[in-house]
Amino acid sequence: MEDHPIVDITRxxxxxxTNVSRLPKGAATALVALVVLAVAGFSTLYQVQPExxxxxxxxxxxxxxxxxGLRARIPFVEEVRKVPVQRQLKQEFGFRTVEAGxxxxxxxxxxxxxxxxxxxxxxxxVAIVEWIVQYRVSNPSQYLFKVRNLEETFxxxxxAVMREVxxxxxxxxxLTVGRQxxxxxxxxxxxxxxxxxxxxxxIDQVVLQxxxxxDPVKPSWDEVNQAQQQRDRMINEARGEYNRVIxxxxxEAQQAVLxxxxxxxxxxxxxxxxxxxxxxxxxxYRQAPEVTRRRLxxxxxxxxxxxxxxxxxxxxxxxxxxxxxxxDGGIPxxxxxxxxxxxxxDQ
Amino acid sequence: xxRVTTVQIxxxxxxxxxxxxxxxxxxxxxxxxxxxxxxxxxVPVVTPGLHFKVPFIQRINVFDKRFLEWDGNPNQVxxxxxxxxxxxxYARWRITDPLLFFQRLRDERGAQSRLDDILDGxxxxxxxxxxxxxxxxxxxxxxxxxxxxxxxxxxxxxKIERGRQxxxxxxxxxxxxxxxxxxxxxxxxxxxxxxxxxxxxxxVFARMIAERQxxxxxxxxxxxxxxxxxxxxxxxxxxxxxxxxxxxxEELRGEADAESARIYADAYNRDADFYAFTKSLETYExxxxxxxxxxxxxxxxxxxxxxxAR
Lengths: 347, 310
What we know:
The complex is a heterodimer. By secondary structure, chain A is of the alpha+beta class. Chain A has helices spanning 3-20, 25-44, 111-117, 140-145, 150-166, 171-175, 179-196, 218-287, 289-304, 333-345; strands spanning 45-48, 52-58, 61-66, 69-72, 78-84, 89-93, 97-99, 105-106, 118-120, 126-137, 201-212, 310-314. In chain A, strands 6, 9, 10 and 11 form a 4-stranded antiparallel β-sheet that branches. Chain B has helices at residues 2-22, 98-104, 108-129, 132-136, 164-179, 198-268, 272-287, and strands at residues 23-26, 30-36, 39-45, 49-52, 58-64, 68-71, 75-78, 84-95, 184-196, 293-297. In chain B, helix 3 crosses helix 5 (164-179). Strand 12 (310-314) of chain A pairs parallel with strand 10 (293-297) of chain B.
């Protein structure tokens, strides 16, 4: 009951003031009254920010929750605790943001932080998991009065739940395809646990951040990606070569066939043409065989003889001429004379 | 007036002191035991608000009503399958019977030390009784629906008989039995962290690396195999196309040759002799040229009239 000491002091102060300063009684009273009012004002009125609510305790017992704005309480008897209910709160795991901004700065990882992030997976491998939890106060009195060191408890719970969920999955799932499922499951389980502890908190979101294999293992994970790309590249190269060679071969094959067809047409047409020509001549020939023969022969000779390089007419009775012929093409003078005499002699 | 005022002040102060020893507040988070000369009296005061007691003789002992922390020391514990792991547990508890609590444990420090004994001990027992996989997994779900690129990547998760959640509950139940007479209620106990011991961790990493390398090797060999197969296919198709084309072309040519031979034969067979005649004439015309040396006898048809007009 702090009432009494204050009243006591002011009375004492007033008596001192009237003794010392010799002020007129009225003015001193007014001054003291002003001081009392100021003190009362400060201890009665309080401000609740828009994102908060005020939880009012009277003699330690919860009496009411007050909305944002300028509020009053019974001074000295009632105590107000302010709780942020609209603001979204966040806890980080496995990493710490040193300075948030357009380019956020993170704390370098040391032992403790590394221990927070490392966990066992269902196939007894190790994964490094960073995550955040976003939550809100939904029940201010529970939030204040049910659990001691709420933040510490909340963090321990979250770690336990995350490890439980990750512990049921393979390291591949955790690193790649299972992220959303893990987030959803952790959110669900964490909310159930929070309710069990009566923390008065609602989980908004659980979001995984960087999830990686441990540093010594990372290069071999990259190697797998590289090998996969190598495989794809080899197959693509082989397919590319196939596509380069086969269509061209098909084209060339078609070309060969068409050429053969062309040859076929050519041959047959020519044959037909020759055959028709022969048949026509033959028809003519049949009308007058002897004459036609002779004519054809003489016409041919007429065309051929002028072209011939050297001609030699020899009497049919002349014998032994051929042995005299020199093979280099010149006519020996004896032979020339012999043929002349033979030709002229048979007049 | 001054004399009266001084007496009044003194009386007021005395009254104040007495009152401050009589009335006390109990917070929403507190529960109080009144003791008189060290012994508890009456029932525990659990409702928050303003209460009164006998001044000076009676003392208030405040206990927390909330869920309180207990954090186990991280311990190296071997599992049943001889793996060494760091186990970090936490628990939450509260004082449900402050009177009993006060009598048995006195204060929170006593409680923490007692809980250390009980909970650490039970945890170590539980870990030693189970394989590591039982402590890590909670359900028997399988990783079937994970899309994998190579069969090397397929991981079969070992099945468990009990699992993490059941083991945690076991520890809790066993410990709860031992704390029942201490005025304490255990709300929850969980394995916050399990990690490999440093030496074991190195082995585990080596295993993970080897596993990844095996998968990488398989990808590479798959690539080579498929590439060789496509190469072979290409060769086969090439041979097929080329030989097919050759066959068809030759057939066409053959047919054409046969047909033309037939046409010729049909025509020339009418008069083989005449054919020989005309063809020979053609041949003479084509083959004789400036390098030819003609030797004609005078009985030649051409020279028939050389000797005379008849």
